[in-house]
Structures are given as C-alpha cells and as structure tokens.
Task: inverse folding
C-alpha cells in the first residue's frame, strides 16, 4: 500500500501522453557507455599482476607452501637479485597476456576482462613504507604493462575492469592479498601507529585519475577492494568496510574523478552492500566536488564472488541441489534492483565464479555423469548471471597447466561455459533483426502505453493527474537505447579495429544505466517513476523482439 500511495498523482499532468509534451530523445549511448553498461560475459586474468602459486606454480620453485607476491619477491631476489627478478616478472606479464590470448577470448564471445592488480603494480612510489619497499624497482615498468593490456584489449572490443585486488597491509589475509602471513592488516594500524588505508585511497585515486585522463583505454570500472572479510562491516569509521568506502568516494568526489563506475566488494553480504550503495545511486544526489560541479561518482556496483565448492554446506550438497540454489540466488540478486526512483540503483555483478565443484558433490556419479553435471553447472551459471545479474567474470582466464575447471579456455573448449547465441550472429543478421523489430515498434508502443494508462487511470478514475507522457518518453528512450546497444558492434569497427566482426550487445547493468539516463533526462521528482517504468518496458520489449528475430 505504501508503494502505491507514493505513486498516486499530486499535481495535474497531461492525459494524452504525446499531445502536449515534446518527447525528445537523449543523445545515443556512446561506445564507452556500451562497453561499461552492457551485459558482461567476462573472465578474470588472475595470477598475472597478483601472483598466486596455484595458478602459475613454476614461479615458485622448490618445496614451499608460501605462495604470495611478497613470498615470490623475497625468495627470487635472494636467489637472482633485483634486476633478474624484474626481468622474470616482466617476462611473465608479457607472456601471460599475449595477443593470441586476447584474440582467443574475443572469439569465445568475451566482452570484458577483469584485471586483478596489486598496489605495487601502480609503480615504485606505491611500495614506499610497505614490506614491498625493498623490491620497489622491480615494478618500475609494471604500470606500462597494464596500459598495454588495456590498449590491446580495447582494440579487440574488450572492456577492462581494473580490480585493486591487493591493498597495502592485505585486506583479507589471503595470499592473493599480497602477503602470505594470514593477517588482514589493512584494517589495523601498525605497531608504529601508521594506517595502511591512506595508501589504499591514493591507489584508488591514481587508478581513477588515469582513467579520467584517458591514459589507460577501454576501462569500464575500478574495483576498490576484493573479497573484503565479512567482519569488516561491523567495524566503525574508516577502519570498517562502510567507512572505507565512504572515504574513497569522498576523495573521488572532491577531485571530480567520476569517470567510470566504482565497484565495491559485498563483504560476503550482498544485500547489505546493495543497501549501502543506494546512497550514491540515487537520481537526485548532488554532492559538492572540488571542481565546483556535481561530484557524484558514475555509480556504484556491488561485486560478489559466487563459489559452490568451499563451504561445508556446499561440500555436503549434491551438484543437482547446488544448481537449484544458484537459480534461487540469481533470482534473489535480481530483486535487489528494479526501482531506481524510490530506492536508488541496486546493481550487482558477479566478479568471480567457476565450474569448480568439490568431489563429494559428485557422489554416485560415474566419470561420464560427472562431465555432464559439470557442463550443466557451468551453463546454468553463465546463463543466470547474464540474465538475472549485470554479468559475470570467470575465475580465471588462463592457468599455467591450461586445463581444469579453473581455466576458462579449457571450460570453453569442453562446452562447459558458452557465450550467448547472439554473440556469434553476423552483422547482416543483426541488421535484419533491427529492421524487423523497428517495423513493429510503433504498434507495440501503443499497446503497451494503452495498458499502462488503462491500469493507472483505473486506480484513480477521477481527473487524470498522471504523467503518462513520461511513460511514453521513457519507453521510447529505452527502446532506442536497447537497439543502440544491440547494433553497436557493426558501427564501431573503426574504434575497435581488431574486434571480431560479429555479435551484438544487450543492456546488462540496467539499474545503473537507468540511473544515468534519468539524471540526464532530469527525471528526478514527482512522477519520474512513470518514466522509469516506461524505460524498463521499452528495453524489455526491444530485446525480446531483437533476440527472438
């Protein structure tokens, strides 16, 4: 009832949607808009700029259980010296992200790669006053390698999500946080009273600054922390997860650095993270920036990892039960969004997932059945994370062994992970579908508008006080945007000269894209919900027709 009361009209508006109000369209989405907000069928490039022994074991010779970046530095510099260690790392960076790998990913329908980085990757200056300081010179060329990965990815039409995977002091105590001592020191002050967090904030500002100044190309987002511990939500101030996010976003606002969305870890509580993010994802938000403008960032996306092989509950569950759980989880995440006007955008992306299952989940399955179960497990996730969430990134793109459930290429080759069918359509087929959909758009719009007007006028059968023109304006904008996403690849060949000449895109980060469009259209008060409803319906109608053909 409260939701309905918020929608009841409070001032007179046009009864005839297009008779009195001009329905002008916003400028079409840019290629950057589409790279950023499309459905991400992605993969991580893990173990490259943040070393992990299990992904690239040859970098950690000898019988050792230590497997972090710092462990590599201490042992390798001891044996080879700083210069040879730098040369070894640079060879690893160059040899792990080759043109051939990027071509292979693009051919497999990948739209975006997530690139895990350590604070050390940003350059020697970020190593100062950390355990990495003695090895700072090793990273003198690291950021240049990152820039090259971004440039070569963009040439192929691949976006890049820069992921600050490892922060000073280690934010989650895991090896992939940079140190192997099991301590999440990022949240604590050192015994000298020094905090690691200012260094983390400087790292985020550096990354976003490089993006805003276009020193790195094709970036679709900056993730400020990876897999934060759940207990960090319970701490107050900047020493807790919410306070850390507040300080980071305040820095970006102050300096006007709002180039791409900020991705934040859900801290293993997706609903809580989404609820927190809404304060930055409201349509009417205005925050003072250092440059005198409106300094709100380009939206906040909640990053979550979805694995089903580590917890005791997952180990005890049969694969069939896990697949059913995935469907429920995806539907639950989908419901966290869907109402930007009243609640703010609730946007989630699965930044890590895999086909990994614990052996106990295969109980009663022979070898052949195990293959079929894993294939269904992977296919179900790939589909649901695309349809119900903003997309997903497999962990990981490449392992040294080149096989197994943690290697994206191997899973693609075996048919366990597949891109959507429309990723393989030729441009001629895409154009045909756009034409067919366009021929029926006006008739469909009138049907949908008529149903909307009939329902809401029935709610208040007195004087028509709704803003139904907003619904029509939103519908037309949503339709045009969906078609623009769908047909963008055929029109972007000059921008992406080495991209695959096939495929099309759908709107993936829908809540975040609606937020951007509502701000641009000035739909931030009164009956703006009608515009949002129309926009959502327009996107849905267009994509249904385009994909159905």
Result:
């Amino acid at each position: 009832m409260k939701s309905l009361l918020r929608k009841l009209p409070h001032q007179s508006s046009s009864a005839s949607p297009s008779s009195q109000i001009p329905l002008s369209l916003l400028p079409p989405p840019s290629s950057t808009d589409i790279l950023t907000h499309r459905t991400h069928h992605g993969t991580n490039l893990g173990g490259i700029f943040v070393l992990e022994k299990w992904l690239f074991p040859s970098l950690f010779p000898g019988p050792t259980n230590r497997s972090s970046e710092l462990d590599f530095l201490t042992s390798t510099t001891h044996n080879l010296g700083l210069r040879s260690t730098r040369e070894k790392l640079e060879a690893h960076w160059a040899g792990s992200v080759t043109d051939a790998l990027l071509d292979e990913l693009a051919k497999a329908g990948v739209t975006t790669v997530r690139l895990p980085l350590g604070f050390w990757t940003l350059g020697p200056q970020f190593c100062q006053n950390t355990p990495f300081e003695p090895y700072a010179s090793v990273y003198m060329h690291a950021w240049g390698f990152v820039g090259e990965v971004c440039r070569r990815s963009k040439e192929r039409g691949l976006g890049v999500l820069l992921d600050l995977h490892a922060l000073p002091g280690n934010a989650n105590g895991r090896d992939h946080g940079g140190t192997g001592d099991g301590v999440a020191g990022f949240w604590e002050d050192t015994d000298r009273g020094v905090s690691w967090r200012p260094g983390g904030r400087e790292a985020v500002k550096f990354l976003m600054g490089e993006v805003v100044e276009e020193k790195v190309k094709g970036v679709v987002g900056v993730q400020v922390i990876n897999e934060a511990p759940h207990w960090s939500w319970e701490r107050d101030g900047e020493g807790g997860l919410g306070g850390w996010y507040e300080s980071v976003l305040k820095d970006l606002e102050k300096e006007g650095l709002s180039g791409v969305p900020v991705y934040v870890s859900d801290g293993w509580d997706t609903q809580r993270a989404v609820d927190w993010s809404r304060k930055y994802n409201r349509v009417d938000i205005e925050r003072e920036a250092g440059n005198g403008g409106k300094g709100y960032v380009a939206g906040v996306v909640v990053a979550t990892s979805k694995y089903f092989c580590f917890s005791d509950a997952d180990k005890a569950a049969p694969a069939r039960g896990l697949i059913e759980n995935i469907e429920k989880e995806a539907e639950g995440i989908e419901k966290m969004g869907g109402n930007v006007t009243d609640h703010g955008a609730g946007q989630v992306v699965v930044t890590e997932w895999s086909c990994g299952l614990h052996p106990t989940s295969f109980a009663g399955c022979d070898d052949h059945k195990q293959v079929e179960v894993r294939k269904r497990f992977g296919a179900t996730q790939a589909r649901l994370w695309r349809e119900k969430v903003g997309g997903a990134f497999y962990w990981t793109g490449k392992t040294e062994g080149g096989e197994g459930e943690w290697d994206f290429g191997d899973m693609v080759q075996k048919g366990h992970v597949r891109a959507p069918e429309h990723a393989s359509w030729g441009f001629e087929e895409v154009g045909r579908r756009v034409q067919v959909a366009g021929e029926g758009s006006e008739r469909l719009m009138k049907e949908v508008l008529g149903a909307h007007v009939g329902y809401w006028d029935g709610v208040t059968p007195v004087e028509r006080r709704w803003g139904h023109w907003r619904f029509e304006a939103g519908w037309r904008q949503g339709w045009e945007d969906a078609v623009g996403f769908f047909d963008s690849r055929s029109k972007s060949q000059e921008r992406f000269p080495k991209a695959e000449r096939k495929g099309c895109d759908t709107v993936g980060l829908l809540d975040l894209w609606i937020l951007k469009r509502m701000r641009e259209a000035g739909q931030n008060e009164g009956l703006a919900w009608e515009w949002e409803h129309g926009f959502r319906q327009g996107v849905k109608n267009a994509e249904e027709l385009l994909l159905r053909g």
